Structure prediction request, 504 residues.
Amino acid sequence: MNRARRADAAHFPVGVDPESVDLTAEASLPAAWAKRWASQTSKPTLWDAETGWVTRGDLARRSRVAAGRLYGAGLRKGDRIIISAGASVDLVVAHVAALRLGLIVVPVNGAYQRAELAHIVADADPRAALVDQPEWARWLAELAPEVTVASPRLDIDDNDAPSLDQLSSGDPALLGYTSGTTGAPKGAVLTHGNLLAGAESVRIAWRWNPDDCLVLALPLFHMHGLGVGLHGTLLSGASAVLLDGFSPDAVLDAATRGATLFFGVPTMYTRLAQSDRVAELSRLRLCVAGSAPLSADLHRRLEEAAGVRVLERYGMTETLMLVSNPHDGERRAGTVGYPLPGVELRLDSESDEVLVRGPNVFAGYWRRPEATAEAFDERGWFRTGDLGEFDERGHLRLRGRAKELVISGGMNVYPREVEDALRSHPDVEDAAVTGTPDEEWGELVTAWVVPSAGQSPQLDDLRSHLDGVCAHFKHPRLLRLVDELPRNALGKVQKHLLHQSGLE
Ligand code: MLC
Ligand code: AMP
Prediction:
């Protein structure tokens, strides 16, 4: 069977599309958005509960003013700017303004603790930070006093617009922090060209059009909410309702008030399926799931309860979206579908690892040439660390991961980070972290601990020990005390044996 796949016009008709986006060397995100904003300036584009609706014209004006403020604060093209805040129009204005100025945006999860923020600050070397938590302003002042810190609400006073540098598609736009397949969190450098290609492929594949309105309940510090939800909305000239946090009622309220799209992680769909209003999901024209596997059972339950066939897709921080079930063809439960327009994909002949190429694939890890070299094979294919197979219809099915990663509620937890923190507890001799399958969260972070002699640490003690070191979503939810960890001859813990040990 052929193990290489390329986007096929039969699945995602590209055709002659009057809305198609400029993907040439001169293209940038702000240039593409500005084209949309040049017409129908009074079209409502973004909504949040505090601001209400803002129009295309508002976004163009407010982001120009905000870019002026950033420029006035001394920021220049290529400078890094940390942005961490709940989803809001102000946050979007700040994000667009930073990109207009040619800054490199570093989105950061607001749940991070001081030590996690410290790593990113040291690595990204930012010149400014826009944060909405007073505690973060304090931490930043201690960690990097030279960094300019402000709230994301930037466009308070009008002032002169700066003369903006011309951006090109190869200019970096974003550092997306991720551990990749190994090691400490590193910044995936995504260029304007990568982000444009990523958003354009889903615009085409999902028939995203200016009449669409997305219910955006995902955080705007990860690729799903930011690179797909927000950038896709702005690129297709559509609109979005921004919710600062997820609740089934808020999503379904928006669906009954005219929204047409919803993108969520599987945990959100589990909670929607439990709502007695689940049938209202059928008001939406398209529901997309990703960031973690959507079980075939949940797919079936949503179809039975709401008549909705959820469209599952697969992506990564380093690559944006790679593979998607078709908009018009069969959406197969348990599969992620076909390569998106522009994406080439093949399976490694020995390991079945998914390898990809395309304009959406990132430019490398920030200031880490060795990690970058390791992430690509000798022919320039990016190694995703995911294992796949094609079914008889050519749909990709993900069978597991070659990388050590637990995905809980769509959030990535790198076992190594939690293991190191657990080992520093005096009652812990050794520790390993795995994911235990769970209906709501996908996987539950599970600590396997060899206690120090005579000790018997409790889950709550270990969790408190991680306070200040790891964000709460990384804390173990289950604890298994064991006499020893199964290691191979090289000393590596054989995690698959832990789950087979019958201790669960
Ligand atoms: C919150 N908590 C979690 C958690 N989220 N625990 C484990 N896993 C998670 N994902 C914890 C909190 O720390 C808190 O614990 C308790 O749960 C309740 O917090 P909450 O804020 O009320 O939770 P909730 O709002 O219900 O959050 C659940 C969620 C959220 C599913 C809405 O996790 C979420 O938005 N997930 C989406 C993440 C995402 O965008 N992923 C995309 C990555 S991009 P305590 O102890 O503090 O009380 C990517 C590429 C691609 O993967 O393909 O898309
Ligand atoms: P991140 O590093 O946060 O971008 O997470 C990317 C990882 O999420 C991928 O490498 C996959 O392991 C996983 N992922 C994303 N979408 C899916 C999906 N639909 N099914 C299974 N895993 C997924």
About this structure: The chain has a mean pLDDT of 94. Residues 56-72 form the longest helix (17 residues). The two ends are 38 Å apart (CA to CA).
